[in-house]
Design a protein that fits this description.
By secondary structure, this protein is of the alpha/beta class. It has two domains: 10-70 and 348-448, Aspartate Aminotransferase, domain 1 (Alpha-Beta Complex), CATH 3.90.1150; 75-346, 3-Layer(aba) Sandwich (Aspartate Aminotransferase, domain 2), CATH 3.40.640. 39% of the residues lie in helices and 15% in strands. The chain is built from 16 helices and 16 strands.
């Protein structure tokens, strides 16, 4: 019997997927009306379905894809690594890709964060940072420091520990009985500005909220976790870099760790490689994932200081950080990350992104002044605005916008009433114009519907 090498027809893919695949962050019933796209392949900034239709990936496939799909340089690095070593356990063994990646990342922090602990995804990195903070304090004789602080509207992942420091009701509420209670402090979201306040004023006011909490509970608090500059999942809430400096100073003063969750905002998204650089600070723990592997393979890591590392350094195995998973420091994922870092260096990506971001901001200018737009904002290569819609329309705005955007060859997925763009770092002038013009067209179309 001859076996066909041709893929099944698209309609068959959709049917089989809906029958057997439980899709993430999805109410599966919605796919009775919202299309499921059978992706065939990707090239550059575009995804293609089985019928040949294309979609500009304007959100980098959930914020992971930095340099386009099927990037030839990352492809070449992975093909080379496949012939050398696909995986080896990192307990008792090591390998060149994980060493080189750790060294390069450390150098990017001027060696202030010189130790990298590896995992597979962002939530796992947050879990590691939380556990590491508590354990470091315990090893230092301060085992009572068991509490954590997060920002209002913060999102840090959906595992049990990460959910405990997440303040997005949609993700958290169902699992509330399973979670430890964290302290929730004011967000420095610039949209919270009162009459006459600047972004910096909001940042100071939010930092004062942290100070009040520390004055009461610092002896019990292990760490405060912050998404530097942009709280993404709550609706791209952006804040002044001053907040980072203020919180860092408070952590030093009250002996509390600072965790920077740069899973979404690291790797150049905000204009600097690390968002923390804009606050001129380094945290005690820095979590990376998403873009670090260029969107190719699951990889996350926690970077930390020598002081934290030394808190675990002992002959006593019980003082060690006993956390692991089978694919820690996977060589293929590390090679993808090294290829990603090489592109940053070879192409002067941060400088090129400043040019690209200015062009995209100019192209989006008509939207910024739209009478149904509020709080048009930008940080590096992240753009967002809030739609003015009534309560009835707001409940379905995101899904209607997503569907309408697909019809205009765009992959855009609003968060509630917040429309955002987080494209890969490779858009040319024509793609920038197309993205801006069609985003505007989709917005008008949805408002009329």
């Amino acid at each position: 019997m001859e076996v066909s090498n041709q893929p099944p027809p698209p309609s068959d893919w959709v049917t089989r997927s809906l029958r057997s695949v439980w899709h993430p962050c999805t109410q599966m019933q919605h796919h009775e009306t919202v299309p499921l796209i059978p992706v065939s392949h990707g090239r550059g900034a575009w995804l293609f379905d089985q019928e040949g239709k294309r979609y500009l990936d304007a959100i980098s496939s959930w914020w992971v894809n930095l340099f386009g799909h099927a990037n030839p340089r990352i492809n070449a690095a992975l093909k080379d690594q496949l012939d050398k070593l696909e995986h080896a356990m990192l307990a008792g063994f090591t390998h060149e890709p994980v060493i080189e990646l750790s060294e390069k990342l450390s150098a990017l922090t001027d060696h202030q964060l010189g130790h990298c602990f590896y995992a597979s995804d962002g939530a796992s990195a947050v879990e590691i940072a939380l556990k590491m903070s508590f354990h470091a304090w315990r090893n230092a004789g301060l085992g009572g420091k068991q509490e954590f602080v997060c920002l209002k509207g913060s999102y840090h992942g959906e595992t049990i520990g990460a959910l405990a420091v997440t303040d997005v009701a949609l993700f958290r509420d169902a699992y509330g009985p399973l979670l430890r209670q964290a302290h929730v402090v004011m967000s420095p979201d610039a949209r919270n500005a009162e009459a006459g306040e600047t972004e910096a004023d909001v940042a100071r006011r939010a930092a004062q909220d942290v100070e009040k909490l520390f004055e009461k509970r610092a002896g019990n608090i292990a760490a405060v976790i912050v998404e530097p500059l942009v709280q993404c999942a709550t609706g791209m809430a952006m804040h002044d870099p001053l907040y980072l400096a203020e919180v860092r100073a408070l952590c030093d003063r009250f002996q509390v760790h600072m965790i920077a969750d740069e899973i979404a905002v690291g790797c150049g998204r905000t204009g600097t490689f690390f968002a923390c650089e804009q606050g001129q600070i380094w945290p005690d723990f820095l979590c990376l994932s998403k873009g670090i592997s260029g969107g190719y393979l699951p990889l996350s890591l926690v970077m930390t200081s020598d002081a934290v590392y030394q808190a675990f350094y002992s002959e006593d195995v019980r003082r060690g950080f006993l956390h692991s998973h089978s694919y820690t420091g996977n060589p293929l994922a590390c090679r993808a990350a090294l290829a990603t870092l090489a592109i940053f260096e070879e192409d002067d990506v941060l400088a090129q992104n400043r040019v690209r971001a200015n062009k995209l901001r100019a192209a989006l200018a008509p939207l910024a002044t739209h009478d149904k737009v509020r709080h048009f904002r930008q940080r590096g290569m992240i753009f967002a605005f809030d739609a003015v819609v009534d309560d009835a329309a707001a409940t379905t705005f995101s899904r209607r916008f997503f569907s309408a955007a697909l019809g205009q060859e765009l992959l855009l997925r609003p968060i509630g009433k917040t429309v955002y763009l987080m494209p890969p770092y490779i858009l040319d002038d024509a793609e920038i114009d197309l993205l801006a013009q069609r985003t505007h067209a989709v917005f008008d179309m949805v408002l009329r519907s």
